[in-house]
Amino acid sequence: MSELKTIEKVLFGVTGELHQIFEGSLEFYKANPDVSFKVRPAYGYNKFYLDWVGFSYDMSLKALIHFILYEKKYYKKILSKKTYGSLKKSIEENQSKKYCISDKLEHDVVTMIEKNAINYMKCCFESNNMDVSSFVECNYDSRSNVPNISKCNVIQNRIVHFKNFINELRIYTNKNTISKSDLKNLMDLSKNLEGIDYFLDLLELVYKQCAITSKEIIEIALSKSLKNSDLSRLVNFVNNKLKDDYLADRILRSIKQ
Asked: N- or C-end of the chain: fewer Cβ atoms within 10 A?
């Protein structure tokens, strides 16, 4: 698994957990908007506030993301053994203390995941007409790139919760025609995808409305490091859905013997 694919899967995993936690308490807090959004998700010290962004680290949304990364073993996938060992020791000694990652590349990866996850949570609050002032005050103010299709799951030109996004796209395409601007946005979004499964899920919905955009997304997929088995699956899609013999033959020729 490539590093980028790993990071992508970790991001999807974190936002997926946050989505379940948020949805589990949503109705109560929509009915009680003046109460801080407290959750007890069985992570860490089992008490966090999803709208605590500018507060201290303890019990904040950042702390919850940190414990998700640790307890779901996502940190193991994105950190070196040395960094992970130091982090594990720090948590075992004092789980309320924030661990600072010294390696710049590792720090940047964790920061990117954290930032996208917090912006995702902000969009979840906003789409439910809930107060997002604490997010905005801390510069977590991103909006969806495709608000007609999804209000929460596409942030800073990146799909941050793939399963939810595909479900929303499927519902949208069943009732609507995708606009030219959104087709372009979908093509741009595909540039940040890494796994062939994600490409095929996206193509399955896009090709019904625009074969040209589908072929452009396929070209983006071909620019990635795909295994022969991935290329074969792409050929099957082109043959069965797009009926484009020339494109299928070109992909076949790129398969390593």
From this structure: C
User: Which residue(s) pair with 39 in the sheet?
Assistant: 48
88 Cβ neighbours under 8 A, 6+ residues apart: 70
Q: Which residues of 214-223 are buried (b: 16+ CB within 10 A; e: fewer)?
A: bebbbebbbe
Q: What are phi and psi of 25, to 5 degrees?
A: -120, 5
Q: What is the pLDDT of residues 195-252, one digit of tens each?
A: 999 999 999 999 999 999 999 999 999 999 899 999 999 999 999 999 999 999 999 9
Contact 123, 155 (CB under 8 A): yes
* Of 189, 202, 195, nearest in space to 230 by CA: 195
Distance between first and last Cα of the chain:
21
Angle at 191 between CA 67 and CA 124, to 5 degrees: 45
Helices (H), 94-129: 104-127
E strand intervals along 76-168:
154-155, 158-159
Which amino acid type is present at position 226?
Answer: L
In a domain, 146, yes or no: no
- Look at residues 112, 137, 162 and tell me which one is the last residue of a structural domain: 137
